[in-house]
Amino acid sequence: MPQLLLLNKPYGVICQFTPSPPHQCLADYVTIKDVYAAGRLDTDSEGLLLLTGNGTLIHRITDPKHKLPKIYWVQVEGIPDEAALQALRDGGLDLGDFKTQPAGARIIEQPAIVWPRVPPIRERAAIPTTWLEIIISEGKNRQVRRMTAKVGYPTLRLIRYAVGGYTLDDIPLGQYKLLNIAAPGVAKPEPVKVARPKQRGRRGPNKVR
């Protein structure tokens, strides 16, 4: 039975198992052998990263034809107006190498499970920040950051909350949940355990407060 690992990746962790100083890598957090990232999450982004050793499952998660929705919590500089939100929703934003598809976009309160980031974002005293929920089914390079910048609201912090039906719920920062998958793409996987990673040095995973 294929297994799927759901990691809550901290900020600053590079999405590979090979060490790459000064960044931490996945080997600092994942103790399971022979698993690989199904998709990527930028070093300066946080949240849900899926890993598995099953090639069919990786294809199911990453192939654009399956259009798995991805939910991001995005802290932006400023307070987006309705025109900016509608531009995100409508799609067609020209980001140079591609134009975006329609997306979900709305203002939300800071989610209760969000943890303090280390290091904290750089905020300007005179400019407020806003949390957005953005839902896309694409996965282009730094797409969400480029989208918010295009409509005039730079991303300060980006957390991936969900991919398809898999979410960050009940996964503390820097830890992972291991699921048994009856078949690639099943709607309700069977949870088997939550594992604590090994910790190395002063830059280990942060505790949820």
Automatic annotation (TrEMBL):
The keyword Isomerase applies. Residues 195-209 have a biased composition (Basic residues). Keywords: Isomerase. It comes from the Bacteria. One of its GO terms (biological process) is RNA processing. Residues 190-209 are annotated as: Disordered. Pfam families: PseudoU_synth_2. GO terms for molecular function: catalytic activity, acting on RNA; pseudouridine synthase activity; RNA binding. Coiled coil: none annotated. Residues 4-149 form the Pseudouridine synthase RsuA/RluA-like domain. This is Pseudouridine synthase. It comes from Chitinibacter mangrovi. The lineage of its organism: Bacteria, Pseudomonadati, Pseudomonadota, Betaproteobacteria, Neisseriales.
